[in-house]
Amino acid sequence: MAGRKQEEGLKDLTLLGNQKTKYPTDYDPGVLEAVNNLHADRDYFVKFNCPEFTSLCPLTGQPDFATIYVSYIPDKKIVESKSLKLYLFSFRNHGDFHEDCVNIIMDDLIKLLDPRYIEVWGKFTPRGGISIDPWCNYGKPGTKYEEMAHYRLMNHDMYPEKVDNR
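Structure for NADPH-dependent 7-cyano-7-deazaguanine reductase, as requested:
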């Protein structure tokens, strides 16, 4: 049977296929796992959409709901999706502003993966009559991806969406 072999990163995974998954109740970047990128010889995007992200307002403790979008160009590692799901779930009781959440997510993924390029976008549902949609990105310094990050930042949201209460 063709496919990824144990020595190509599968043996190190602890969450995928585990029927006794524990869902973290507090922010936990330690739950993130990565495997080798078997296609590091080419650029390609990996995109994740998490429409059920929740965190807490750090002042009031009220829940905030969002769709989190993570897009990245991997280098030597890719994130294992179940670990990413559990990691994002760990924000459930985490009190931080929307802008902090997306930057923390990006920083943790950079630390885990050392990607060529990454962007994280949080599209939060309105609370108090206003929605907040923070977006951040990063390109590996000294590479074309750093230039790409600068370009995408300067041209991000040039044509904003029509907000229809999500």
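The two ends are 44 Å apart (CA to CA).
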